[in-house]
Amino acid sequence: MPHGQFPARLEPVGPGSYAYVVGIGSWHQSNSGLVTSNGASLVVDTLITPGMTRRMLAEMARAEAAAGHVDVLVNTHGDGDHFWGNQLLASSRIVATTRAARDMRGAATPPQIEALIAAEATDDGRGDFLRNFFAGLDFTDLVPTFPTETFDGSLTVTVGDKTVELIEVGPAHTQGDLMVFVPGDRVLFAGDILFSSGHPAVWSGPFQNWIDVCARITRMEVDAIVPGHGPVTTREKVAEFRSYLEDVREQSTVLHERGLGVDEAARVIDLTRYADWIDGERILINIDAVYRELDGRGDPDRLDIFHRLSAFVAEMRSRAS
Ligand SMILES: [Zn+2]
User: Which PANTHER family match (predicted)?
Assistant: First the structure.
């Protein structure tokens, strides 16, 4: 199946509120959300391509007439899989944190990323993961479209009769993460603060901040939690996700003390507790994040990480076969 045609479903999570759950939550398969009330609507994140976003918005409008014209779009952070469909809602009020908006404006576009990949790709199979990274995704019509409004801390938005709270919680997954809380529906759209099917990617950290946000979620008055990737989840699962972050930090710290490099540490870290989690290669990103914290370095050059990830995936595959 081409990547651009991931199966997706619109799932009710409250009266007039929905999760749009894409694929199995792997790379590029990010979720969106819809909140409607009394003729008004708010969408949480667009998808990785305009085409996928167009299909999603049509399905939302079929479920709720109020989604035929979206009043507010909220981007949970600055990664492309959450905002490259924004142009479909260019006439809506588009809200993000100041830091997320900065990330979006600074981000390379897919053609730029593909050019960088092509320039450095090797033919020994180690670069296959990266070379095929965007395979099947159609970016031809993409016009990066940015927030019209930014905030720091928190912001309350009204959608019909509903109050929606935007809560800045980064830096964690990225510099500018926010969550969308709808108290009246007891629903939380967590963005990439939560991955419910597999390994997250810790691009920014610090780990402690992310761990604290997880603890905060488990205390919130919510019944449905919509993660950035993977199926709708519960507070119990969030506790499990939190202990993953604690475990990876603890094990990586020991490996760092023993003098192992990141790539070496990724081969020996014990992940048996997470054997059924997808996207296991991301452990490399996450160990690197612990090491960066310990060494006092900031956010990584993502392309450099992706090249190492590509070699790691090739190695994992040859070991598995
Ligand atoms: Zn994402």
Answer: METALLO-BETA-LACTAMASE DOMAIN-CONTAINING (PTHR42951)
82 alpha carbon – ligand 1 mean position (Å) = 6
CA of 174 to the centre of ligand 1 (A): 10
Residue 51 lies in a domain: yes
Structural element, H or E, at residue 54: helix 50-63
Nearest to 32 by CA among 76, 64, 72: 76
For 123-145, how does the pLDDT look when each residue is reduced to its tens digit (9 = 90+)?
677 778 888 889 889 999 999 99
**Ligand 1 centroid to 93 CA: how many Å?**
21
Total number of domains in the chain: 1
CA 28 to ligand 1 centroid distance, Å: 7
Task: Give domain status of residue 286, yes or no.
Answer: no
The parent domain of residue 79 ranges over 3-234
Look up residue 220 and give its DSSP letter. S
How far apart are the CA of 77 and the centre of ligand 1, in A?
8
Look up the CATH number of the domain holding residue 138.
Answer: 3.60.15.10
- In tens, the pLDDT along 244-292 reads 999 999 999 999 999 999 999 999 999 999 999 999 999 999 999 999 9
Distance of alpha carbon 230 from alpha carbon 157, whole angstroms: 26
